[in-house]
Design a protein that fits this description.
Helix Hairpins, 75% helix
Length: 102
């Protein structure tokens, strides 16, 4: 059995679905960030798969590399924000932190 484009798309769809489910249902900010990383990894799989099977050259790998760099920057900044919120409120639940409006 040969691994084709459909297999990559199925794995990517499952990762994207799990990430979207995590973003919608989780209340912990760190779990939401991990779910966003799953969504970005699903996009990376799509970029690389379409680049490989679609004969687009190296463009898909370059886009995936850009998304990896973006995800690393997002994780660093978001983790700093979460640590600051925890230091201020002693809690990282998204629903319970509504004092930021004041």
């Amino acid at each position: 059995m040969e691994v084709g484009l459909n297999h990559f798309l199925v794995v990517s769809t499952i990762l994207f679905g799990l990430g979207l489910y995590g973003v919608i249902t989780r209340k912990n900010a760190i779990m939401v960030l991990m779910s966003i990383e799953l969504i970005l990894n699903a996009a990376n799989i799509n970029f690389v798969a379409f680049s490989s099977f679609g004969n687009f050259g190296i463009n898909g790998q370059l886009y995936a590399l850009f998304v990896i760099i973006l995800a690393a920057a997002e994780a660093a900044i978001a983790l700093a924000i979460v640590l600051n919120i925890y230091k201020t409120f002693s809690n990282v639940n998204i629903d319970e932190i509504n004092n930021l409006k004041d």
